[in-house]
User: What shape does this take?
Amino acid sequence: MLDNVIEDDDFMLIMQKNIMDMIIYFFDKAQEFSILCKIEHVSFEPILPEEINLQFRSLTLFSIAGYTFESAKIEDDKLIFEAGFGEQNVGSIVSVPLLAIMQIIIDNTPILINLSTYKQLNKATQKIDDNGVENSTNSFLSNPENSKFFV
Assistant: This one.
């Protein structure tokens, strides 16, 4: 029965919207946070050296703080940010699909838990309440400082 819910496209859309709304809220409040995500769905540009990739676990924690927070934005249902990795601080642009984010964490406390099963949603399937997304986005963008978080 639980599988019927967590694999349902409508449930995934609700979770995706909740994740996006939470991140937008943190951007608006200048609140740094961490995300725990499924590394298999994360992409890096440029691609990281193999010795760094081997250090990632299937669930990886990224801290969205400092410069990483300043570079963070939401684009095409993904959280995108710049980060440095390894001893040599190898820079890369990290792209995380919102539904691949399993938890959003502040001060070691999970404040959002995503129980949905990740899969790429078809754009035709995405029937998020456009007014809800538009209203939260417009509210967020009403502060000129926040426009940098969206492309």
The mean pLDDT is 86. DSSP finds five helices and eight strands in the chain. The first strand starts at residue 33 and ends at 38. The helical segments are 2-6, 9-29, 50-53, 67-71, 130-141.
